[in-house]
User: What shape does this take?
Amino acid sequence: MSKKKDEDDILGEIKQRFRLSFDHVDADYQEMVDDLTFLKGGSQWPSDVKTQRDADGRPCLEINKLPVFADQVIGDIRQNEPAIKIKPVDSKADPKTAEILTGLIRNIEVQNDAEVAYDTAVEGAIQAGLGAWRIGTHYTDDDRFEQDIEIKRIKNPFTVYWDPSSEAWDKSDARFCFVT
Assistant: This one.
């Protein structure tokens, strides 16, 4: 089989998987956008009702109490910042090794400003029900084979499209994911 044919097959599979992922979440994402709009203080009246009330000269009051509650939950989470901690769970696990691994992970979090990624994901989850961050690696230098782990924020969670056949709540069983 030619290289061009292989590339076309791979691209076809990517396009098919993206279409499946997009179709699977499109309606949910539209509702989440509506939730965000409602939270931010717009469109709290259905458009036809608002138009009729405006035509009749009646007021359309909007007393939006949601941001206060959302900010309170976000603030509580920022006060008790989530962090990864390794715990030895059986008789064969070494507490000292767990402590060292926790320290290494903490160093990775500090080096990457993981707190920003976590906070952005929490805000998205509270405001619209969706938050995400990215974990990956990059080479330390062009001439070395060493890699560093990186934790990056995803500013807009609506750019993430998961494998629709994934069933785990944390998507750990997903076979693929797109970040557009």
Remarks:
- DSSP finds five helices and four strands in the chain.
- The two ends are 30 Å apart (CA to CA).
